[in-house]
Predict the structure.
Amino acid sequence: MTRAGVISVLLVIVLVIPLIGQMSQEKVDLDAIYRIKDEGLNRSQVMEITSYLTDVYGGRLTGSPQIKAAAEWTEKKMNEWELVNVHLEKWGPFGRGWTNERFTARVISSASTFPVIAYPKAWTPGTNGTVEAEVVTAVINNEQDFEKYRGQLRGKYVMTTAIRDVPAEFQAPGRRLTDEDLTNLTNQPVQPPRGGQGQRGGPPNLGNGRGNNPANFNERRLKFLVDEGVVATIESSQGSGGTVFVQSGGGRNVTDPPVPPQVVMAVEHYGRIWRMLEKKLPVRIELNIENKFYDDDLNSFNIIGEIPGTDKADELVMLGAHFDSWHTGTGATDNAAGSAVMLEAMRILKATGLRMRRTVRLGLWTGEEEGLLGSRAYVTQHFADRVDMKLKTEHGKLAGYFNVDNGTGAIRGVYSQGNEPIVPIFQTWMQPLKSLGMTTLSIRGTGGTDHLSFDAVGLPGFQFIQDPIEYNARTHHSNMDVYERIQAPDMMKNSVIVASFVYLAANRDDKLPRKPLPAPQPINRGQ
Ligand SMILES: [Zn+2]
């Protein structure tokens, strides 16, 4: 061994011993972890829960009758497991509900008639019964295009997006994180300072307030299409292989401006129609879209259930996931997966009969897809409103919040969300879970889901690192977000991991460490 080697060994000892000292204070009850694994890996119900949420209740768009029915089933299940304080907690207003009740589509060309894969966008109106009409193309990108198409679209189906190439898929749609991916996640990214003109990122503001705002332009484009009297608009989907990605096309408020019926079509079928039109062949489409709006209750709800604690019962550990989804698939990976894992974690904890010092509370959120609305409302009602940061009593009582919302993929680690003191704690907790593939602690934060609602008011909220599987390639917000895309072994492991983390958080002497309280965010409007 070289001299430098000896010095570095000494250095490691000097640096690591205090860390071990710190870590050894962190207790992990391995008998409890054994019992959680035994229940979760040998008597799992997570796929049965998933099948109810997806196969039976289907897409769970916030405000729809389906999500209400799924929530009622979930309440019933939690009562069967003898959870307490099971209820739907109202928040709102969210806006109108919406469902698609019927959709048929066929194309009629001079040579043949054929069906197509397509879906209506949420919060758009239907056709009045079956409507057969000529189809034309009108890709409107700027002001001049309004003049180009004015007076030509009445009574027609209008294809509104340009055709695109569909390359072969040489990469498999599904993947797991590699060792290299996981190593990268352990490194703290350091961004060079941006700008130099006192500007902090973002494109320069060209705004004259008219026409440069894309949302504003899209509103005017939709108004133009309504005023011109189109039957419906048709756009091609992202992706390929018959997979169609569909979200919203209209407003949730009764007073929002009207939009035309809007349909998203599989790119291959869209391309076929487009190429016939390019050959100057007449093409007609026949659609029957029956959509329904629900105006009677503009509020939504979160689903709550608890396991009472013992000597620290007034303190809380929370686990949660969003329960809502988009409407064309059955919301399987986004996010029946997370909801089922959280429900199964509660079932496991209850079934093992393990004693937990703090009360464990499950929150299944709605309105996530429209901007983390349900979790934010819950955090505002119970903990603090980020706008004024006036802390409510429960703010001091929450030990931590754990969230799952990255699909079916196995949990491979956890994001510490920049919380430095949590790192050695989670490192210790992960030890008995490494055999399930959970090895990686990232100092990074991750975004896009409900733990942010907690983080925004200074509460320790965490999201796990998960294998992406087919999330972006196939399932996320698509018609193919269905039960078949859920990986049972991953779901079972995830339930055990979440139950273990919740158990350890519930029984720790102290609540989990927090980052400094953020300042009020009076102009922060969103996520
Ligand atoms: Zn989503």
